[in-house]
Amino acid sequence: MGNYELRITNYELRITNYPLRITHYLIMSDLYISWTEYHQKIETLAKKIYDSQWQFNQIVCLARGGLRVGDILSRIFDQPLAILSTSSYSGVGGKVRGGIKLAEHLTMTTDTLGSQVLLVDDLVDSGVSLQESIGWLKSRYPQIQEMKTAVLWYKSCSAIAPDYYIDYLADHPWIHQPFECYENLNLAKQDYAD
Predict the structure, then answer these.
(1) Is 167 left (phi over 0), alpha (psi -120 to 50) or beta?
(2) Which domains does the chain have, with CATH numbers?
(3) How many angstroms separate the CA atoms of 77 and 75, rounded?
């Protein structure tokens, strides 16, 4: 294949001297969201769902990112909330996307899951979490007659298009959400020896 260089630093991917002799830069921008913006986006999402006139009787949120979104939508629509714990990011700062891990069980306070399910997350990036979660829910809860998805941010690189979203992001930014500051505040690692 020849002698080529692949270098990744600070969200920049640079490939030089590839067999086609191209140089390509991919720079991932950053998007910073305040608490006010975050809550406004959830309220706007609720309005969009309401305006669609789709009747659902269950909200399932993907934890952790979809927890706050799901909680607020559950309160606005007065529908039961179920939680499916998932994990697809790890590494320093939780910025390394890996394989999806899904919980064994759904957490819910009702005896059965509703038949019209709104599946909620904060964002859809690759689309793997949403796709896998849809499959997981349908395989375990055959009473689901219809399922729609809702997110705040829809990245263009996603393999799945959500039914409801607020922002379409063509440039794939890293989204800094307002609760990110708590990820650096890890009391379990603090030294209380003093």
Answers:
(1) beta
(2) 1-28 (no CATH), 33-182 (3.40.50.2020)
(3) 6
For helices 35-52 and 67-77, give the axis angle rounded to 10 degrees.
50
Q: Could you tell me the pTM of the whole model?
A: 0.77
Distance, in Å, from the CA atom of 70 to the CA atom of 165, rounded to the nearest integer, reads 14
CA distance 65 to 34: 15
pLDDT per residue, tens digit, the chain (194 aa), is 444 444 444 444 454 554 444 444 445 689 999 999 999 999 999 999 999 999 999 999 999 899 999 999 999 999 999 999 987 755 454 454 557 888 889 999 999 999 999 999 999 999 999 999 999 999 999 999 999 999 999 999 999 999 999 999 998 888 988 888 877 776 666 655 44
142 exposure class (CB count in 10 Å sphere: 0-12, 13-18, 19+):
exposed
Amino acid identity of residue 136, one-letter, is W
